[in-house]
Amino acid sequence: MAFPTFTEVRYIEAGEVINRFDAIAIILWTVGLMIHISLFLYGLSLGLAQAFRLDTYRPLVIPLAWLTGFGAILFAVNYAELNEFFFESYVPLNILMGAIIPVGLIVALIVFRRNKKHKRE
């Protein structure tokens, strides 16, 4: 059972009118994924543009999209490799990227602001 949600959606029927909810679920899944990828690509390009003090983020969008596409192709060759990543490496990586780095940045910001405040006095 590779995708449990998709397996469950295949059995849904709405009378005689709509009995192929799996096609609708795939369309919604794909549209949602495209919106998700677009927002992350926008955030990445805008963040890099601000970090490098560029006037606009637009020149970064196409190269970052190409890098994202190539990275997605090279990341996992097959489903077994992707599954191995999710169950072995993803949890520590997610804790690092989702908790440790943001908390570290907040602490650094607080320390920086306190030092700046003490220098003014």
TrEMBL record:
<feature type="transmembrane region" description="Helical">
    <location>
        <begin position="91"/>
        <end position="112"/>
    </location>
</feature>
<dbReference type="GO" id="GO:0009847">
    <property type="term" value="P:spore germination"/>
</dbReference>
<feature type="transmembrane region" description="Helical">
    <location>
        <begin position="23"/>
        <end position="48"/>
    </location>
</feature>
<dbReference type="Pfam" id="PF03845">
    <property type="entry name" value="Spore_permease"/>
</dbReference>
<keyword id="KW-0472">Membrane</keyword>
<protein>
    <submittedName>
        <fullName>Uncharacterized protein</fullName>
    </submittedName>
</protein>
<feature type="transmembrane region" description="Helical">
    <location>
        <begin position="60"/>
        <end position="79"/>
    </location>
</feature>
<dbReference type="InterPro" id="IPR004761">
    <property type="entry name" value="Spore_GerAB"/>
</dbReference>
<keyword id="KW-0812">Transmembrane</keyword>
<keyword id="KW-1133">Transmembrane helix</keyword>
<dbReference type="GO" id="GO:0016020">
    <property type="term" value="C:membrane"/>
</dbReference>
